[in-house]
Every structure is written in C-alpha cells, then in structure tokens.
Design brief:
The protein is 39% helix and 13% strand. A six-stranded parallel β-sheet has the order 3-2-1-7-8-9, with helices on both faces. The chain has a three-stranded antiparallel β-sheet with strand order 5-4-6, with no helix packed on it. A hairpin with a 5-residue loop joins strand 4 and strand 5. The chain has 268 residues and is of the alpha/beta class. It is elongated and about 65 Å long. Helix 3 packs across helix 4, helix 6 runs parallel beside helix 10 and helix 8 packs parallel to helix 9. The two termini are 22 Å apart. It contains ten helices and nine strands.
C-alpha cells in the first residue's frame, strides 16, 4: 500500500472530527461553486481581479435614491455590461457540483448541522442543504428593506412607471436580496450565524479567503471557544494559521472523500 500522503492523513483526521462532533457549522465561499463554472472573486481569474472591486458605497447610493437605483438596474438589464452579463449567465446556468451534494450528504449523515454561505448562487439549496443561512443574500430573491420579508424574484412585479417596487406587507422599499457593499447584513442572518458559532463543537471553512466580515468572524468566534477548525481550500486563506486540519484541494474532490471516510466510521 502506498504511503499515505499528508492529505490522506489530514482527511482521516478530519473524518475523525466529523464522526465525533455533535454540532458542526460550515462557512462556504465562492470556491465551492468554482467547479460549477462560477468564478471566484479574488485570485488569478477572480471577478474582482478582472473587473476591479466594486465601489463600497453601493448601498448608500441605493438608500439616497432607490428610484434612481431601480431605473439604472432596468437600464442595465436592457443593455447589460458584457462582463457582468457573462457573470449573470454563469450564475443562471450553474448547477450544484459534487462538493455541494457531498455537503448535503454530510448534513443527512448528521455531521453537518448548519451551513453559512457567502454565496448568492442558490446552489447549496439546489444541492440539497436544508439548514442554511445565505449571509450575503440570494440573487434569485427580492427583499423588503424595512421588514426584511423575502420573495422569489419572479413574484415581485417591477413596474417601470412605479419605482421602486414596494412591499405588500409594510409598503417598504424592495430591492434584490443580494447584500450590497456597505449594506448591513439582515438581522436574521447575523443572529443565526452568531448563534451557530457560539453553539458549535466543530467548524469548517470551505472555498473562502476569509477576508470579508462579518462572515470571517464566525469561525474565529468558534476557535476562540476552543473549537477545532477544518479548512478545505486549494490555497492558504486568512485563517490557515488557526486551522486544526488543512485539506489542500478542490471541494468537489475532497468533500466526497470525506463522506466516504465518515461513512466508514459510522458503519463501525
Ligand atoms: N474548491 C474549494 N475552494 C476553492 C476552489 C475549489 N475548487 N477554487 C478556488 N477556491 C478557493 C480559493 O483558493 C479562495 O480561497 O476559494 C476561495 C475564493 O475566495 P474569494 O474569491 O475571496 O471568495 P469569497 O471568500 O467567497 O469572498 C467573500 O467577498 O466580494 C465579496 O460578496 C463577495 O461573498 C463574497 C465575499
């Protein structure tokens, strides 16, 4: 039998931690959707690397003039920027990959309790994950800025003669559910993520540089409580130094291997 590689040994350690945990929380980022054809944001072929990081005051501009924001959005929909249109097409065409499906399987096996995702692509839900917080929202949903009610995009009628669209429950201003730069994270998402970080006994980060807050704070809250952190990423991240187990590789390959290793332990 070939000598086990460091990755093989780390996978065994990770499987031991999963099989023995009672409440494992996972934070995912763009990397878990890379194998679904969606570009990451940072790194060599990242979206921000190519297009530049968007202005950090998008939310402030929206709140100053929601009608103007909607007029610009409808104009862009009619005459899209080629790069952003390409990203929108990639988002729409994307399907869950083996990584999303394996993470949902780990939830069914009882070794993943909750997923906090920074992704807005809906692929965790489509891939079968049920206990999910979309901390940056979901591009296929709309949200009321006053009462935080949410609807699938298709359920909101956007009348160009009557902008911005209004909430049927409280008449608040409605915008896309995706959290803009500078926008506060919706309270329900923040509270649930904090609760999960405070009650977990294992934390995993998958496919995130862990540079954006408050998302990157939750694994650190767990580690400060003495909870082991598992990192799954082809490259080092901002939290590599505090990870107890490091699985260097693509999520679509490593998560299915983790499912098999945990299944072996559960069969004993
Ligand atoms: N499997 C797992 N991880 C991968 C893969 C893969 N196949 N391919 C790339 N990665 C890793 C990269 O090494 C990197 O660490 O995914 C990570 C992607 O990092 P970012 O592009 O910074 O994406 P993310 O961490 O999700 O960004 C957080 O920034 O701009 C905001 O709102 C945006 O939600 C996003 C947030």
């Amino acid at each position: 039998m070939a000598d086990p590689t460091n990755l093989d040994l780390e996978l065994e350690r990770a499987a031991d931690l999963l099989a023995g945990c009672t409440h494992n929380v996972v934070l995912t980022g763009a990397g878990i959707s890379k194998e679904s054809g969606i570009p990451t944001f940072r790194g060599p072929d990242g979206l921000w690397t190519k297009l530049g990081v968007p202005a950090m005051d998008g939310y402030q501009k929206f709140m100053e003039n929601p009608r103007g924001w909607w007029e610009d959005r409808l104009a862009q929909d009619a005459n899209p920027d080629p790069d952003m249109e390409n990203f929108r097409v990639q988002l729409e065409a994307a399907e869950p990959n083996d990584g999303h499906r394996a993470l949902a399987e780990l939830e069914r096996m009882g070794v993943v309790s909750h997923v906090i995702t920074q992704n807005v692509d809906d692929l965790h839900r489509q891939g079968g994950t049920e206990s999910l917080t979309e901390i940056h929202g979901n591009t296929s949903w709309m949200r009321c800025m006053a009462c935080h009610a949410r609807w699938p995009e298709a359920e909101i009628i956007v009348d160009p003669e009557d902008l911005p669209p209004r909430c049927s429950q409280c008449n608040g201003v409605v915008k896309s559910d995706g959290v803009m730069f500078g926008e506060p994270i919706p309270p329900y998402a923040l509270q649930r993520s904090q609760l999960e970080a405070l009650q977990c006994d294992l934390f995993m980060i998958i496919g995130t540089t862990a540079q954006v807050y408050p998302a990157a704070e939750f694994p650190q809250i767990a580690v400060r409580r003495g909870v082991p952190l598992i990192e799954i990423d082809p490259d080092p991240t901002a939290l590599t130094a505090i990870a107890a187990v490091i699985l260097r590789g693509p999520a679509g390959e490593l998560l299915p291997r983790l499912v098999e290793a945990v299944r072996e332990r559960q069969a004993v």
